[in-house]
Amino acid sequence: MQFPTLADVVGHTPLVRLTRLHAGRNNTLLAKLEGNNPAGSVKDRPALSMLGEAEARGEISPGDTLIEATSGNTGIALAMAATIKGYRMTLIMPESASSERKQAMAAYGATLIEVSKDAGMEGARDLADEMIARGEGKPLNQFANTDNPLSHYRTTGPELWEQTGGQITHFVSSMGTTGTIMGVSQYLKERRDDIQIVGLQPADGASIAGIRRWPHEYLPRIFDASRVDVTLDIGQQEAEEHMRLLAREEGILAGVSSGGALAGALRIAEQVENAVIVFIVCDRGDRYLSTGLFAPER
């Protein structure tokens, strides 16, 4: 009997119907539970894809040091994937990330370098580029690496099509590196062009882990705006309130970007009828507990 490895069980995550947060107008609201992946987020998919494809092309080999800038989930997933495949992983991230994220990376054996909150992800990306230029490690570069959206084209998109029996009408996803929305959009649009792809970005002043509004010079090279039909701005309070609603009303403990995705899905539901609306719950909420966002109201 052949037993699966950890890498074999990435993906095939549940798609569940919300039962208490009603979408109205005969709409169906479905949550794709990516926190069920082994390292706890949707980023497990591109992490294994980027390592595996680079290895197949001969660009990296076990024992190499890899360098990546991350806001958290990709770093955790890459740390897991590097451990599975035998690589050393150096991760660069803003100091403002939750302690659970940092500890998870360290638990997998990754080396963590922090930049200031003011430097943010742009500063982390700049430092990664500098270290690679000095020959301190090899890049994966999730922001320009086509193996990132490829993982979602090969796995997430087909899963959603199969799980909805081809009835999906709207796909709602936060936009960070944009790998998820790019890959899923490409797959679904090839199946039926009228499926609406809804991308989420932070409203002015919002700082939501996993959702970004990039300055033009830092816009991910994998991003193609033509693959997103609708873009919604999500506010900080809106995302946090809907994150708590997911936990308290549906029993889904997820992060802030997932709350933003729910908020976006509910907005779409107010405008349509007889729709099957899928949104990505990109990670688990237990890696945000130290932030106090789930603390009891006083």
TrEMBL record:
It is an enzyme of class 2 (transferase). It comes from the Bacteria. Its cofactor is pyridoxal 5'-phosphate. Residues 8-283 form the Tryptophan synthase beta chain-like PALP domain. It catalyses: O-acetyl-L-serine + hydrogen sulfide = L-cysteine + acetate. One of its GO terms (biological process) is cysteine biosynthetic process from serine. The modification N6-(pyridoxal phosphate)lysine is found at K43. Its EC number is 2.5.1.47. Belongs to the cysteine synthase/cystathionine beta-synthase family. This is Cysteine synthase. It comes from Chromohalobacter moromii. The lineage of its organism: Bacteria, Pseudomonadati, Pseudomonadota, Gammaproteobacteria, Oceanospirillales. The gene is cysM.
